[in-house]
Amino acid sequence: MLTISQLAAYAGVTVRAVRHYHQIGLLPEPERNRSGYRTYNAAAVVRLLRIHALAEAGVPLARVQELLDAGPEEFAAAVQDIDKQLRAEIRRLQGNRKRIARLAAGENLALPRSVVGYLDRLRDLGVEEWYIELERDAWILVAAQVPDQIDTVIALKHEALHDPDMVKLYSLLRGALDWADDDPRVIEMADILERLMIRAVEAGEAGAEGFDDQFVALMDSAMLEAAPGAERLLAILEQRGWRGWTRVERVPPATLPRRPAGTESSD
User: Fold this and answer.
1) How far is 58 from 256, CA to CA, in rounded Å?
2) Which residues, given as ranges, of the chain have pLDDT below 70?
3) Looking at the whole model, is its pTM more than 0.70?
């Protein structure tokens, strides 16, 4: 007769595991001897070995009893079902590993790969990280809103980087956090943006399809909060007959007389 420690050693498990199997009903508890200790026979060793083999193979403990009691055909069917579940779990874990690898490699959480590639191109242009983070957060929102359109939108953004005006616009962002309110580069940015807006309207690409008014307002407010000079820039563009950032609209120019370049203000 064996003690619980000897039983565990024979089966290659811990005493804690044996007690757990007792607790969940997989391994019947033997009677105690006169000294109050449990004693086990060979049949207990065999059952514990079978339990351990099934558990090591990935069979959930909740199904071990079912397999122990099953006939040959039932056992084979149950094993196939468990194998199917394990393969599905493996696919899920492999997908998780790929996502973790992208994060470990510096990829951004919740961003499609196409967007990450676009942000890397901005870095190659010398765009500072504060603006990369601003665009990153905006693209996370966009990707969540229109996941089926994001790759198409990003393809257009990649194409836009061949436009010298777009490249110049991004180059002007360097050092923008330190600009004074009356920095003339804001006017230069407004000039470039106006040219880009005109071309976008002419190409039919100025809208924000799939975005409701609340989402557009959210995106615009995020830009206004994070980007220095954004409020003044939009005020200048509105004087010139443009409104919006996420959804560009042509509007009647402001009724105020046009100020000379460099004197526009958001006041």
Assistant:
1) 75
2) 101-109, 206-210, 228, 253-267
3) no
CATH number at residue 13: 1.10.1660.10
**DSSP letters spanning 196-252:** HHHHHHHTT--S-TT--HHHHHHHHHHHHHHSTTHHHHHHHHHHTTEE-SSS-EE-P
Q: CA-CA distance, 197 to 248, in Å (whole number)?
A: 7
CA distance 49 to 14: 12
Question: Per-residue pLDDT tens for 51-60?
Answer: 999 999 888 9
Do residues 73 and 129 share a domain?
A: no
- Nearest residue to 57 via CA among 97, 23, 86: 86
Q: What's the token pair of residue 26? A: 């997989």
Dig out the tokens for 8 from the structure: 């565990």
Structural domain range at position 55: 4-103
In one-letter notation, the amino acid at residue 88 is A
Return the half-sphere exposure (C-beta side, CA atoms, 13 A cut-off) of residue 4. Answer: 19
Instruction: Give the residue from 239, 228, 227, 226 showing the smallest Cα distance to 267.
Output: 239
DSSP 176: G
SS3 content of the chain, % helix, strand, coil (to 5): 65, 5, 35
Quote the CA–CA distance of 186 and 172 in Å, as a whole number.
9
Residue 260 lies in a domain: no
CB 160 within 8 A of CB 166: yes
